[in-house]
Amino acid sequence: MRKIYSVLVAAVLLSSCAKNLDEYNIDQKKATVVPAATLFTAAQKSFADVLTSPSVNTNVFRFYVQQWTTTEYLDEPRYNLLSRTLPQAFWSAIYKDVLSDLQEAKKVINADPLLNADVKANELAQIGVMEVLAWSTLVNTFGNIPYSQSLDIANVQPKYDDAATIYSDLLVRLDAALAGFKTSAAGFGTADLLYSAKAAPIASWIKFGNALKLRLGLIIADKDPAKAKTVIEAAATNVFADATDNARFPYTLSTPNNNPISTAANKALTTRTDYIAAQALVDKMNTLADPRRPGFFTTVGGAYIGGYYGFSNSYSNFSTMSAKISAFDFEALLMDYPETEFGLAEAGRRGYTVPGTPEQHYNNAVTASIIYWGGTAAQAAAYLAQPAVAFTTASANYKESIGIQKWIALYNRGYESWTEWRRLDFPKLLPPSAATAPAGQSVPDGLSIPVRLIYPINEQTLNGAKRAEAAAAIGGDVVTTKLFWDVN
Amino acid sequence: MTKQLLICFVFMLFAIGANAQDKTVTGKVTSKTDGQPLPGVSIRVKGSKQGTVTNASGAFSFSVPQGTTSVDISFIGYLMQSVAIPSSNVINASLAEDSQQLEQVVVTALGITRKKNELPFAAQELKAEDITRTRDINLVNSLGGKVAGLDIKRSNAMGGSTNVIIRGSKSITQGNQALFVIDGVPVSNATANTENQSTGRAGYDYGNAASDINPDDVASMTVLKGAAATALYGSRAANGVIIITTKKGSKNSTNITVNSGVTFGKIDKSTFPTYQKEYGQGYNSPATDGTGNPVPTAGFWYRDVFGTGKVMTPQFSSDASYGPKFDPNLLVYQWSALDPFSPNYQKATPWVAAANGPDTFYETAVTSNQSVSIDGGGEKGTFKVGYTRNDEKGVLPNSKITKNLFNFGGSYEMAKNLTVSAAANYSKIDGLGRYGTGYSGLNPNQGFRQWWNVGADITELEEAYNRNNKNISWNWGDATGTKPIYADNPYFNRYQNVANDTRDHFFGNTALNYKVNDWFDVIGRVSYDGTSDLQEEHIAVGSTALPAYARTNGTFAETNFDLLMNFNKKITEDISFKGLLGANLRRSRLTNIYAKTNGGLTVPGLYSLSNSVSPIEAPVERYERKAVDGYFASTTFGYKDLVFVDATVRRDQSTTLPTNNNVFWYPSVAGSFVFSNVLKDLTWLSYGKLRLNYAEVGNDAPNLSIYDTYTKPTAFGSIPMFSVSDTKNNGALKPERTKSIEGGIETSFLNSRFGFDVTLYKTNTVDQITPVSVTTATGFLKLYVNAGEVQNKGIEVSAFLIPVKTKDFAWTLNLNWSKNKSEVVSLYADVKNIELNTLSLSGAVTYNAAIGQPYGVIKGTNYVYKDGQKVVNANGYYAATSSSAEIIGDPNADWMGGIGNTFKYKNLSLNFLVDIRKGGDLWSLDQWYGQGTGLYPNTAGTNDLGNPVRSSLASGGGIILPGVLADGTPNTKRIDVSNSGSSAYGYPNNPPRASTIYDAGYVKLREVALGYSLPQKLVSKLRAFKGIDISLVGRNLWIIHKNVPFADPEDGLGSGNVQGYQSGSYPAVRTVGFNVKFRL
Fold first, then answer.
1. Mean pLDDT across B856-885
2. Would you list the DSSP string of B555-603?
3. What's the CA gap between B338 and B334, in Å, rounded?
4. A chain contacts of residue B654, beta-carbon cutoff 8 Å
5. Chain B residues in contact with A35 (beta carbon < 8 A)
6. How many residue pairs from chains A and B have C-beta atoms closer than 8 A?
7. What ipTM is given for this predicted complex?
8. Any idea what the Cα angle at residue A316 is, between residues A312 and A322, rounded to 5°?
9. SS3 content of chain B, % helix, strand, coil (to 5)
10. What pLDDT, on a 0 to 100 scale, did the predictor assign at position B886?
11. What residue ranges define each of the domains in chain A, with the CATH number in brackets?
C-alpha cells in the first residue's frame, strides 16, 4: 500500500510547482528581439502593398479617378464606403503595418550602442523619409488624424490633430531627415528594397526625400503659397534626374511577394474579372492617340474600349489592364521621375524659382512616361506636337494641361492620381448618374466623387468622442468634405 | 501486495463455500411509479450485515441462512420495505418513491455526491433517458430546452460545434463555454476552429471535443450553474460546469446491452429560401450588348459563341437573378449549351426558372448508431466495457463522420478499505466533407442564399458534374465556357474541394480510494485528456478559388493530479460535519502546426505540400503550456437535516499570469434551510427548501499574453522581415474575478404531484482579462487589459406537474423558464465601447460590448425616423443614419423556456418537448446580399399599380417606399427597381443596416419520442433477454413559429462569442428514426 502512495506522491512531485514556471509564458515559436532592418523592410513592403493593391477592400482610388471601373459589383465605383471596411483597412495598413514598424525600428536602432554613428544617422534618416511619406498619405486621405498622441498604446483614445499643423511638422521632420544623411556611409543596405540596387543608395534617398518635399510643397501651394515657395525652391535642385531615380518597389515572381495587382487579376491566381478600363480615361487617350495605350490596356477587336463608369459591364466587351500590369513581378512606383518633372513644371508656372522652364519639365514628364510604358522618344515627340497636348496650346490653365497629362501619367497609381485630381481639379470627371447610364441600367440620384475617405467605422465605436471632435473640426465626416489644402 | 490479494481471494472463496447450506433468494425490484427496474437497490437480511444489491436490470440473487424469514429492501429516494421470503424464495418487489425526496443524490463538483436536500445552490440533473431519448449523437445538443438557464445554440452543420452558455456570457472576449467534466476528467468544449470560422468568414466547423462521448454511456448529467456550485473547480469553471457521470458496472451482476438505431434527416424547407421565379440570371437587362450593338431581347449577351453567327446567351458571369424576365417561348443558349458533353450542347433551351431548385441539393441524412456494452462485477470489483460506432451521413453530398468510441472502466476492492479504479476512453473521429461555413464558396449556402441564378437546375448541374467530374457551372466567366468565375458547380465543390479530418481523443483516469476509517477517506486521482487532430483542406485544380492544400496538425494534452481528503462525521446526534481538503495540479500543453501550399498546385489531384507552385511559406507553429496549482478546502455543517452551511476556499497559482501576481484566493459560502421539516403539519407541503449563496471565482490569463513578440512575414527573397505584433501583451495583468450571489426556493406539494424551483442570481465578472480592440492609430489592433465588468442577473424557474397518475397511466409535465439580463457595467480607462467583431463583408455592422448595454449589441446604420415613420431621401431611397454606431439589435434572448411532456401507459411512453426562445436579434448577411441580387420574392412581383415592379418607370414599374420625406410629408417618389444597381433592397444602394435585422425568437417542437418496453412476461420467455426497448424518435420536427425568413433562427456559426449573425446559414434538419435496445 505504501508503494501506491509513493507512486502517487512521486507523480505529483514530478511536475514542478507552477510558481517556478515563468518560462511557460515565453512563446517558443516567436521572436522577442529582432534586427531593426527587418522592421524597415516590412514597413516598406506594407506601404507599397496598400498603395498598389487594387482590392476593393483596401484601395479603390483607381475608380475614383476613373482609370478603371468594375464589371459586376458596383459598390466601390459608386463610392460606397460602408459596404466593406475599406477606410479601416487603409488606415490600419499605414498606422499599424508601416508607421508602427518604423517606430519600432527607430527604437531598436537608438538602443543599439554598437552601431556606427553615421550608419545610424542614415538609417534614422531613411526611416524619417518613409515616415513623412506615410503620414502625408494618411493626412491626404482623411484630413485631421491622430498624430501627436498616436502610436502610443498607453493612450488608446488619441486625439486627432489638425491636418495643416501636422503638415507643418512633417516638413520639419523631412528637413531633419534630409540633414541627417551621410553620403559617405551605408544605411539599411540590402534591407532597403527601394534603392539597395543603386550604386550610391544614400544619394538616391536624398533625391527621394527632396522629391517628397517637392510633392508636399505642391500640396499646400494653393493654401500657403509662400511656404510652398520656400519648400519647393529648397527641394527643386536635387530631385529625380531621370527614371533610374524612381522609387520603385521590386515585386517578385513568387507569392506572397508578388504584385498585389496580380493577386487580384492575374489568371494564374484568380478566375475573377472585376476590373476594366473606364471610359473617361480610354476615350481621352483615344482622342489623343496616346502611345501609352498598349502599355496600359488590352484591346477588344483591335480597339481600346472603356466601360461605363459605375455600371455593370460585360468583361469581354472592354479593355482591361495590360499583361504588363498584371504580371507577378510588375514593379510598384512610390514616386517617379515624370511626377517630379510635372511638379517642377507646375512650380515654374506658379512663379517659383526652379531650374529649367515649365515647358521643358512638362515635355520631360510626358516623354519619360511614354518611354516607361513602352513607347519611343519619337512617339513622345509626335504626341507632344499635338496642339491638345503641347504645353503651350493644351490649355491656358496650367492646372488643366498638367492635370490631364498627370492623370494619364499617374495611371495605375490611383492614390496619387486622386490626390492630384483633388488638388488640380482636372480632368473634369462625372459621377455615375442617369445621364451617364447605359440603356437598361439605373442608379440612384445624388452621387458625388469623394474628396476624402470617411474615418474608419470602428473609430466611431473605439474612439468615438475624439472622432466626433475631428469630424466637427473638418466640417463633417463625409466624403464631400474638402481637405484643408483642397481650396478650390 | 499480491500475496495479500491472493489471501483475500482465497478467503472469499472459502467464505462462499462455508455458506453452502444457505438458501438462495432471487428476485427483481422495480419502481412503483413507472415499473422500470431499479438497479443498485440494497437487499439485506434483517438485523444482519448480509446483503446484496440489484443489478442494472433490477434483479438480485443471494444466499441467506436457512432460517431467514424476511429481507429489507432499501434505495435512496424510495421508501424502505420489509418483505417476507415466500416459499418459492422469489421476491418481486416494487418500491414507492419517497415523496420527501430527502435522500436523492446529485453529483457535484469534483465528483462529490451529495444529497439533494443538502445542496445550497442550484444544480439541475438530467437522467440518462433525458439524454438518449431522441438519439442525437451529439450529447450536448440533447440538453436544449431541458435546463433552465442553459442556452444551447447548435449549428446545423454536420458534426458542428454547439455553443453552450450558462446564465449568459460573462467574459467580454474570452471563452464563455461551459466546462465539461466526464467522470472527473475536465474536457474542454473549446473547438479547433479558426478565428475566421467563428467570426463568420470562411472555414469549417470541426465540432467540439465534448461531443466525443456516446450518449448511451451517460448515467446522468448535472448542470452546475452558479459560482458557488463550481468554486471548488477553480478558475476554469467560471462559466458553469456540466458534470457527466458515465454508467458503471454493479457488483455481482453481468449485463449486456446492445443498442441499434438509425435516424433519417431531411431539411426543413421553411428554413430554406423560397425564390422569386420571374426573372433569370443577370444584374440588369441592358438593351444593347454594352458596346452599342443591339440584342434581340434586352438582358442577353449576343455573340458568335459557336462560330455559327451571333446567338443569345444569358449574362453568364452574373451571379444574380436580376436579369431578363422568364419566358418559356424564348430559346436561349444556356450554361449547358457550352458543355460539349451535355445533351444541350450548342442547343437553345427555354428561358425558365429551374425545375429543381437548391433545396434538391440536400440529400437525406442517415445516422446509424450501434453500441455494445458489457458491465458487471463480482464481490470485489466491477467493470464496464463498451464499443460504439456511429456513422453519420450529412444532408450535403459527400459528407460523413464516423465515430468509433471505445471505453473501459473498472474498480476493484484491493483490500477492505482500498479501492482502485480506472477508466479509459478512446474516441476516433473521422470526418469527410465537413460543411464549409460562413462567407465562402466552400459553403454552398453562400451561393444558394446570396449569389444565385434561379434558373440553374440542380439536377442538371449534378448530371453535368457526373459526366466527367469537371467544374461545369452556370456561372461561366465568359461565353467560351472554359472556366467558372465566382460559383463552382456545387457538386464539383462537394466532391473535389473536400475537407477531411481525424481526431484521436483519449481520456481517462486512475484513482485510489483509501478509507482510513469510517469518517475519513483519501482519494488520489490522475486524469488525462488528450487529443490529436489532423485537418486537411483541399481546393482542386479547376476551382474558382486558387488550388491549394492546407493541413493542420495539432495536439492538446491536459493532465490533472488530484488529491482529496474527505471527512464525514457526526459531531453530535444532530450536527453533522463534512470536510474536504484537496489539491489539484493541472498541466496542459498545446502544439499546432499549419502549413499550406503557395500560389496553386502543380499536379492536379496531388494533395501534398511539395506540390506547391511557389515554395511554401513557413508553417505557422504554436506551442503553449500552462500549469495551475490549486489547493482547496471545504466544510459543510448540517443540523438535523434541516439546515446546512457550506464554506469553501480555493487558492490557485497559474503560470499564465505575471509571476508577481499569479496567486489568487477565492471563497464561497452557502446555506440551505429545509423549511418543510419544521412545517410538518402542512400536509399539502411535501418539501420546501430555501437556498442562499455567495461565491467568487478567480481566473487567469490566456496563454502567452504577458510578453511581446514579433510576427514574421515571409521573407522577401533573401531579405527577412519582422513586424510588430497586432496584439499588445501586458505584463501587468492581474487575475479576473467572477462574483455571484444566488438565492432560491425549491418546493413540492400534494405528495410531490407538483413542485417548482426558482432561482434568482446576479453575477458580476470584474477585471476581465481580455484583448480589447483599439484604434489602430495606436499601432496595434488589440491590447490585453483587465477590463471592466459584465453583470448578468436573471431568474430561473423549473417546475413539474403530474396532472394524472394512476397505476397504469401517468402524465408528467416538466417546465423550465429562464430570463437573463446582461449588462456591460464598465470597460477600462474611459473606453465606452469594445468591438467584438466587425463584419468585413459589411463594414457598417459591428458586435459590441458597450457600457450600459447588453453584451454583444449589434451596431450599424439605422433608419431615420420622423414621428415614427421611416424617412425617405429626396432620391426615393430610405435615409440611413450618418452614424454607424446606432444600436440596431440585441442578440440576447428576452427569455427561454421548455415544456416537456411525458405520458406513460403501462410499458408505453410518449415524450415531447417544445423549446421556446423569445426575442434576441440576428443580422442576416444572407438577406443583405440575397435581396440585392434579386433572389427573394420581395424583389419581384407587382407594384401598387398592378405592374411588375421590375418594369421600367416608363412602363409603370417601380415602387414607392412607404415613409415620409425629411419634412414629414409622405414620400411619393417612385423609384426604378428594374435592376440590381437601383434595387431598394439589400447591399447595392446601402440601405440602413437595420433593414436585415430579424427577431431570432422561435417556438419549436424539439423532440418527440415514443417508447415501448416489451412486457416482462414476454421477455422472460425469450430466455436470453432481460428487456427489449423499442423507440421511435423525431427531432426538430416542426418550427411552430419564427420570424427570420427562409432560415433557422437558431443556426449559428458554431461556438464562439459572435452570436446573432447569419451568413450562408444551413437549414434545420428534421430527423426521424428508431432504436432498439436489447438488455441481456
1. 93
2. EEEEEEEEEEEEEEEESSSSEEEEEEEEEEEEEEEEEEEEEE-EEEESS
3. 7
4. 18
5. 722
6. 334
7. 0.94
8. 105
9. 10, 50, 40
10. 93
11. 63-256+329-474 (1.25.40.390)
